[in-house]
């Protein structure tokens, strides 16, 4: 790992240890988000997925004094064994369905830390059984799943939290408040980017390897595949991390990291469902039928148009996303004078200046620096994203990244992944009816057909 990557990783770990943000709840949802108190002092919790990010999630839940980890689940027996070693007496499962059935009366809450394609199935089943849910980002694999899960969570009145840990950093919390306070005036345009060095290690070009391979003895491949088509196992291709490359399992780089970088912007200026979205993609991917049909490209530039509001200059506001080989315009990057333009960040252009929110950074930066050098910024302290969720489940202050808040944001982000699959085509979005009226051919990408035996009857 080079020094730049090392410093970025250290910074990210530092801010992943802090959590949740200023509560911004749409007024029409307030009554639906009534606190769900749990009797007793302990939150009886189950961790579904304990490898990779799941191990990090488990570690954070363990640090809350009022959490009792009752059960854990993972399709990888090696990951399950490692997690169980630090939890004397914990009950272990390979199949999350068995866990939710057998532990129905023993748990109050679950966290969902599995690949994207199984998020909805696990989280929805838990919610329908009255369990509080912490779910890793993105909330779901498909737009229709997000809509259904959001409705189910609001209806059930359970506590929820999206795994956007950076939303709870001092930087993002302060940025939200600055935007709400109008620090840079009315918003004119927004530029988001994630051009992280070394990302090629988890972004494969494809196509899928030929032939059949046996999954290792520690991995239950059928359960790992879950709702997706049952593909032949291939080493160093899917498990444990490269699944994000594949349309069957992941949501591409924008789907994965987008939830982090959208978050403060979405909350700070109160964005709602977009009016349209269009995507420009890596040319080599667009020209390759096998890659286009199976993987996500290694570079995207997406443009959303959102309805304007009291925080925007006009009745519409444009937001652009750049990753891989696509970068924000040079004139925008030059606005950031303190140093090299942060590779993962949000830049908002306002009528009175600009603000850059560095992903995992120390603080938002108001630009030009000379204009704002004497401005007093009230820094909002970080808090633990996981602990805030636990406290909410136990009857404390409600979470800020609850699904009623983060669900609509995830929908908007995943509309971008739909646009990727029909590049260069402007898609007009009818949010109320959940369809693209000007290009019906794209509607098929809003929801998947689950593999036989894994169907979930959601409120689609």
TrEMBL record:
It comes from the Bacteria. InterPro entries: Gfo/Idh/MocA-like_OxRdtase_N, Gfo/Idh/MocA_oxidrdct_glycsds, Gfo/Idh/MocA_OxRdtase_bact_C, NAD(P)-bd_dom_sf, TAT_signal. It holds the Pfam family GFO_IDH_MocA_C2. Residues 212-284 form the Gfo/Idh/MocA-like oxidoreductase bacterial type C-terminal domain. One of its GO terms (molecular function) is nucleotide binding. It comes from Pedobacter psychroterrae. Residues 44-163 form the Gfo/Idh/MocA-like oxidoreductase N-terminal domain. This is Gfo/Idh/MocA family oxidoreductase. PANTHER family: BCDNA.GH03377, NADH-DEPENDENT DEHYDROGENASE-RELATED.
